[in-house]
Automatic annotation (TrEMBL):
Upper lineage: Bacteria, Bacillati, Actinomycetota, Actinomycetes, Kitasatosporales
Gene: ychM
One Pfam family this sequence matches: Sulfate_transp
Name assigned to this protein: Sulfate transporter
TM stretches of this protein: 12-32, 70-94, 106-128, 163-180, 192-212, 238-261, 319-348, 369-394
Membrane topology per record: Multi-pass membrane protein
Species annotation: Streptomyces aurantiogriseus
Amino acid sequence: MLSKFPYLRQDFLASIVVFLVAVPLCVGVAVASGVPAELGLVTGIVGGIVTGLMRGSSLQVSGPAAGLTVLVFEAVSEFGVGTLGVIVLCAGLLQLAMGFAKIGRWFRAISVSVVEGMLCGIGLVIIADQIYAAVGLKAPETGIGKLVGLPGAFADAVRSTEALASLAIGAGTIAVIVLWKKMPKAVQSVPGALAAVILATVTTLAFGLPVATVQVEGLLGAVQVPTGEAFGELTNPAIWGTIIAFALIASAESLFSAAAVDRLHDGPRTEYNKEMIAQGTGNTVCGLLGALPMTAVIVRSSANVAAGAKTKASRVLHGVWLLLFAAAMPWALALIPIPALAGILVHAGFKLIPFRQIAALWRGHKGEALILIATAVSIVAVNMFEGVLIGLALSVVKTAWEASHVKLEVIDKGAGPIQAYLSGNATFLRLPKILDSLESLPQDRPVELDLSGLHHLDHACRTALETWAERHSAVGTEPVKVTEVGAEAVSAA
């Protein structure tokens, strides 16, 4: 047995650690997403057993992710919990199509500043949203509303004993997670988030605090297989934007996580297209069960590697433990205080904000830093999907601008023709600058325009230069002589 599975002991121990990390996160993400807590466990189970068995990235672990909480909550608010399964199912099928079309590796081409900006924006919204949950209040609908309303929420908490007790549990949870890393190594074998939830639960029960706890429906009761009515929502054009957002953001998060996990170990490297297929399969199954969407989760994945996992057996076993827990101990979920889960997610949201990356980008690449900030602000101000699109558009514009370096050198010897040399990449982005310089040349002097130094000349620039040459030649001077790339001088008019 051991000769057939040489790493069974290491993988078994790692699976226990990942299971303990996953339980509070699965439940917390589900509650924050506005769905039954058990659906978070269902996604964790599918991520472990189904996706875990497939090829792609051998050591990264999949499940419900804090990074999709905002998007899922918006989808549930707009379309209802019953339609969530259809959205996740279609997103999974779209991921499968992208995987089979070998698009997975292209996700590595997405600007890192856009991805970091996406995580930053998500983190800010999660923090604001979960502060309301910690106080026991309903959060405003918009990201801006959440941030602006925080002072009022704290003011309401001060005037209410119940709200203060709830806030204290949430703040205490965060404090335990942060301070847990300073505990002895033996104590740290229990994950900080799990320890914080246990302490919060014991404190709430021991002192009889008036704090809301998780509502439990049972594993089978929470599963909602999509109905015909739910599939009928696919005729609504608005739902397709959400489906595309689920597929693209979940894929990007999973594949960027895979790249990060590869840097943590010396084992087999990620096969990106196969990982995309694995994620798509997992989300298809989650959709059929009406559960939350899944991504690869860096917190669980790094815990898996740090715990000494060697093969995919560790993540599969963690899914088995989640299944046994959800089936045998659902009553334990009903004891968990909601503000404790809010505290876990506030801490998770804070970790999504890339403070070091922003500082490093600002020092070396201010343009990239501005794209990161603009993406984050757009997500908070508008929504996640449109915020990411804005970030991608800014990234494309910046790249195009930087790629269109062009230099115009004018030589005027006082007599004879004026010589103008263009070199670099002449695109429409630099056209105003080029035309301003050419139109400032004397109208009563012949001009020789040398384009042989250009690497690229787009159609807009060519047309504009031809039009300028015709106008310049129309005032009675000699026709503008244009030297094309690899050609002799020719008259423009």
